[in-house]
Automatic annotation (TrEMBL):
Protein name: Histidine ammonia-lyase
Family affiliation: Belongs to the PAL/histidase family.
Location of the protein in the cell: Cytoplasm
CDD domains: PAL-HAL
Subcellular location, principal: cytoplasm
Record GO terms (molecular function): histidine ammonia-lyase activity
Keyword annotations from UniProtKB, A to Z: Cytoplasm, Histidine metabolism, Lyase
Reactions performed catalytically: L-histidine = trans-urocanate + NH4(+)
Gene Ontology CC entries for this record: cytoplasm
Organism field: Keratinibaculum paraultunense
Length: 509
């Protein structure tokens, strides 16, 4: 098996990204990328030698763009840039996020529009491949001019400064580089700016959230289908003919998933058998889950573009020997996308909590109150719903868009910023909350099925139910509930339910 990903700045996929970040695939530049990097570097060196006035190469940065820098001072300029911009605060980002940052920055530089030396780029790739993960604080980025502060912490380690995790230990940057046998670098003209002027922090956080969100949206269909059975839901509402008159792809995909999952179930009903219509949280699953899937698909399209983009400033076009100063570092495309992603994921939690409420409420379910055979002596799932409601409420606060805010910086030279990294971090928090809410629904749905008097379940739901029951028994008397909730969350997070279901009944959409 070839556990390697070749990068050229143009063809990195979300699956490649996950393989490097989570499965430790190694990274290597293509021959074409090497040629592009070397050609753009030649242009930088030519302009430095000629002392041509070019932003970020022979000038200062931001408001200091009108200060000229001599060729003798270019190394000092680049080092000072990294030192002064290392202003991140807060907890360190997860190592998988840091690996994503390093991969995405390397891929952007591999496009050959940034003017970095090949040796410097290879240092970053060596760090990624050998597991030297810089300590990057989670807070401090405005999302324009890119993720300056957090990316500076990444580059500190390349210089032998800062801190890094290596083989499970938090070390001084120089010590981590020594142990990994990677020489540190001395940055020269344009290189510091090339390494920190970009959107890779927000994109790494967002891409991981996106990938997990795609799987969570499919798992939410499985969990919803279990609840449909626990409540003897009406399957007619999922007829794909509904799509013929309202052609939203996510709606169709969700309907097809539900029909596949519930096939041959003896616990679903038809229109008019028990009631004419279900409440919206059951009847409208295709419309609600489907809308989130459509939003997630939109975000995936934008992330795929961003992962293969040059996002620094200025950009070097070697064919015409042009250096163009612009704004590709601005995080607005990702800020709006990750705000949208957070909203889409929060809706999966919103409707999940409403289904959970129907399960525990005897006036709505026809099941014992709070899913307990001996209510009163036992509280059953009463506070499970409280906890879910708390998370859903928190998500509503987190779903407020970060992208509508802007605070001018750099003496008003940078007078509109994206807050895209905040948007990405919020989306990640929403994902984590949503996964917990769905775990609670999963636990409650299986309990409801048992209390209803379990009959034959659907082709897909039977698989999911058995996975849960293999670890968690029917709850006859009050138990320490968080332990069961955590088990269900681990099942969702590890994708064991999704993978097992898909292996036996086919891919979900």
């Amino acid at each position: 098996m070839n556990n390697k990903v070749l990068i050229d700045g143009n063809n990195l996929t979300l699956e490649d990204f996950i393989n490097v970040v989570r499965h430790n695939y190694t990274v290597e530049l293509t021959n074409e990328a090497i040629k592009k990097v070397e050609k753009s570097r030649q242009i930088v060196e030519k302009f430095v030698e000629e002392e041509k006035i070019v932003y970020g190469i022979t000038t200062g940065f931001g408001k200091f763009s009108d200060v000229n820098i001599s060729k003798e001072e270019t190394k000092i300029l680049q080092r000072n840039l990294i030192m002064s911009h290392s202003c991140g605060v807060g907890n360190p980002l997860d190592e998988e996020i840091v690996r994503g940052i390093m991969l995405l920055r390397a891929n952007a530089l591999a496009k050959g529009y940034s003017g970095i030396r090949l040796s410097t780029l290879n240092t970053l790739i060596d760090m990624l491949n050998k597991g030297v993960h810089p300590v990057i604080p989670e807070k401090g980025s405005l999302g324009a001019s890119g993720d300056l502060a957090p990316l500076s912490h990444m580059v500190l380690v390349m210089l032998g400064e800062g801190e890094a995790y290596y083989q499970g230990k938090r070390l001084k940057g120089i010590e981590a580089m020594k142990r990994a046998e990677i020489p540190t670098v001395e940055l020269t003209s344009k290189e510091g700016l090339a390494l920190i002027n970009g959107t890779q922090v927000m994109t790494s956080i967002g891409a991981l959230t996106l990938y997990d969100g795609i799987n969570l949206s499919k798992t939410s269909d499985i969990i919803a289908a279990l609840t449909v059975e626990a409540l003897n839901g009406i399957i007619d509402a999922y007829n794909v003919k509904m799509y013929d008159v309202r052609k939203h792809t996510g709606q169709l995909n969700t309907s097809e998933n539900l029909l596949k999952l519930l096939k041959n179930s003896s616990m679903i009903t038809r229109q008019g058998e028990l009631r004419v219509q279900d409440a919206y949280s059951l009847r409208c699953i295709p419309q609600i889950h489907g809308s989130s899937k459509d939003a997630i698909d939109y975000v995936k399209e934008k992330v795929n573009i961003e992962m293969n983009s040059a996002t620094d400033n200025p950009l070097i076009f070697d064919e015409t020997e042009e250096v163009i100063s612009g704004g590709n570092f601005h995080g607005q495309p990702m800020a709006l996308s990750f705000d949208f992603l957070g909203i889409a994921l929060s809706e999966l939690a919103n409707v999940s909590e409403r289904r959970l409420e129907r399960l525990v409420n005897p006036a709505l379910s026809g099941l014992p109150a709070f899913l307990s055979r001996k209510g009163g002596l036992n509280s059953g799932f009463m506070i499970v719903q409280y906890s879910a409601a708390s998370l859903v409420s928190e998500n509503k606060v987190l779903a407020h868009p970060a992208s509508v805010d802007s605070i001018p910086s750099s003496a008003n030279q940078e007078d509109h910023v994206s807050m895209g990294t905040i948007a990405a971090r919020k989306a990640k928090s929403i994902l984590e909350n949503t996964r917990k809410v769905l775990a609670m629904e999963l636990l409650a749905a299986c309990q409801g099925i048992d209390l209803r008097g379990k009959k034959k379940l659907g082709k897909g739901t039977e698989i999911a139910y058995n996975i849960v029951r293999d670890k968690i028994p029917t709850i006859e008397e009050d138990r320490i509930m968080y332990e069961y909730i955590n088990i269900c969350e681990d099942m969702i997070k590890s994708n064991i339910i999704l993978e097992d279901v898909e292996e036996k009944i086919g891919k979900l959409l």
